[in-house]
Input
Amino acid sequence: MTLLNHVRDNESTTNVIGLSGSITNVITIADRLKSAREDAGLTQEELAKVAKVTQSTIANVEGGLRKKPRELLAIARALNVHAEWLESGKGERRLFPNELPDGARPTEVKYAFRVGVVQGGDNGFIEAYTAPTAQEAEPVYYASTLLDDQAYAVKVRGNSMEPAIMAGWDVVASPNRPADPPDLCVVHFTDGRKAIKKLTWLRGGMVCLESISALHEKITEPVENIIRMDKVISIVPN
Output
């Protein structure tokens, strides 16, 4: 799917050219939400379930009844689009790159079990990884074109990964989908360290990893220091 951005009457407008060749105008937040939802292959009910909002919230925004929903960030994350684009039509549409081209196949809603609760540390690594409580050990519903029956979720505590990942959100990762640049991944090191980082490059037996937070510098590690890098296939707001 190709996006053509232009300005008309000082208002940002985005035209989406679909697979059929038809042009859909997405000048309003209602149009952009409907376009992104249909592009993801989700019903209003499915999107509401993943974003953890009511179906009426989605319907009211798409119906033009709500111009600035307070749930905007959660809805944008569930659709893998930037909140700024969803609200105003400005900037990039996609939040994280997709393995498949737009429209290649519909997004599906699946669930993964939450296996841990993580707390980011000052050094860019996970400083605490604890088992979820009985209340926290629940299925996490997510929407993705990248499905894995063995996918797992970890709940994030603290603000060390903001604004990309907020406190209370879940990161869903696939142990069966190795990460490729520039994927976000859950990294398991041989010395027991864990981290959620962006894979920048992999060459010459070395791996370069970039922290989600701008406060931490990129690191390079020998490949033999890493057990695996599980591709992040969804970030679920809470």
In short: The radius of gyration is 18 Å.
